[in-house]
Amino acid sequence: MNKSGIKSFPKNFWTAITMEFFERGSYYGVMSVLSVFLVLSVDKGGLGFSKESVGVIKSVITPLLYILPIISGAIADRFGYRKTLFFAFSVMSLGYFLTSISSTYITVFMSLLLMVLGAGVFKPIISGTIARTTDSSNSTLGFGIFYWSINLGAFLFPLVLIPILKELGWNYIFIMAAVGTGWLLILNLLVYKEPQRPQTQKNLFQVLKEMVLVIRDYKFILMIVIYSGFWILYFQMFDTVLWYLKEYMDMTPVNNFINSILGLFISNPSWKFDAEHVTVINAGTIIALQLIISSIVKNTKALPTMIVGIGMGTIGMGILAISTHAWIFILGLIIFSIGEMTAHPKFISYIGLIAPEDKKALYLGYSFLYGVIGSGIGGVLGAYSYVKFVNEMGRPGLLWFMFSLIGVATIIGLYLFNRYLSPKKNI
After folding, report:
1. 214 to each of 206, 257, 296, how far by Cα in Å?
2. Both 93 and 207 in a single domain?
């Protein structure tokens, strides 16, 4: 009698899920406060970099995280998953540790590049392991658990660990991430098993050849470029939104409400809403509502649903321009997160539907170019616009209005694409 549900997954599946949880938890733990730490004055424990220089860092390291899997997937198929994981965890952990002891712009930049090299190499190996340890009967559940583990890490690490580590010293956040990813070397050595690899393994020349093939599909590339507009907004959650929170927002109403609840269990609670909780709200909303949202939109057409999701995300960001009240800020983050979880799964589904039958995996592999474009533009645009509109002009509403216009432009672009260029209608 065949096992079903949770019991149907082998040990290697759960090993990969554990790796994903700790790697993503470490990554989002760091990213939830990195932009704040880098611009914070030295006397407050930060590094005192300019916002513009931080924007440059983010516009380099984050696109690398999205583009490296193209090459690292081929490398892993060629040399083996375990060997590639040893490299990924070693480089990643070293990058986090070096960041913890770095204080100059160039050493921090180099250390973060090392970290993102490891993270980018790691990225496709785990999803590949999930694919090779599941079949048609449990693949949907398997990848559901996989995405759940990502958001659980992004929820718990910033919520539980970051506030404690900040009190000890900002460098402890990076040391935590170094340990959180470094111990996975032991798990890889003792527990992880090399999954069966495909017989035909691509070399790097074939990967580059396929890249040219995809780029020549102008409709596909145009679709990615339009959709990346939404991700310019998304990446503000790790930069401009955090600076805005620290410099403009008074979160006392939220703090009082949470402390009144905590007061039922402990005496004199002193919880405070801080930068890391922006990531907590985003991940927590997805954990709480993703299954509900997915069930609502499971039979709806992909592009119209994406437009609705991006519309909600745009409204969420636009709300920040309306008021500086604490609860309005929270509402904006929640609405944005609902928009994200509405649009993005449908985007992945849409790519799978429009891709040529014999090239589905190839197209899905290149679909993440939205992150390369979105973060590449978003980091620099957000930083320079923040300095101009907020620091120099004192008008943060203009910043959020500008990003809302980018969201509107994305909606219009997708509408026109759906009407005139969509390769397949009625999907």
Report:
1. 12, 51, 32
2. no
- Say yes or no: 227 and 280 in one domain: yes
Number of domains in the chain: 2
Q: Which domain holds residue 127?
A: 12-191
* Mean predicted confidence (pLDDT) in 87-94: 97
Distance CA 316, CA 121 (A): 33
Which phi and psi (to 5°) does residue 157 adopt?
A: -60, -50
pLDDT, tens digit, 9 for 90 and up, residues 324-373: 999 999 999 999 999 999 999 889 888 888 887 777 777 877 888 999 99
Residue 175 domain-assigned? yes
CATH number at residue 331: 1.20.1250.20
- Average pLDDT value over all residues in the chain: 91
**What are the CA-CA distances from residue 48 to residues 17, 35, 36, 51, 311 (Å)?**
37, 11, 10, 9, 36
The Cα–Cα gap between 366 and 115 comes to 22
Indicate if 30 and 131 belong to the same structural domain: yes
pLDDT tens column, 117-161: 999 999 889 888 888 888 877 887 888 888 889 999 999 999 999
136: how many CB neighbours lie within 10 A of its CB?
6
234 CB-near residues (< 8 Å, 6+ apart): 313, 340, 374, 378
Q: Cα separation of 403 and 422, whole Å?
A: 26
d(CA 374, CA 63): 8
CA 278/CA 159 separation, integer angstroms: 10
For residue 92, give every residue at least 6 positions away whose Cβ sits within 8 Å of its Cβ, in sequence order, or none: 23, 114, 115, 117, 118, 119, 122, 181
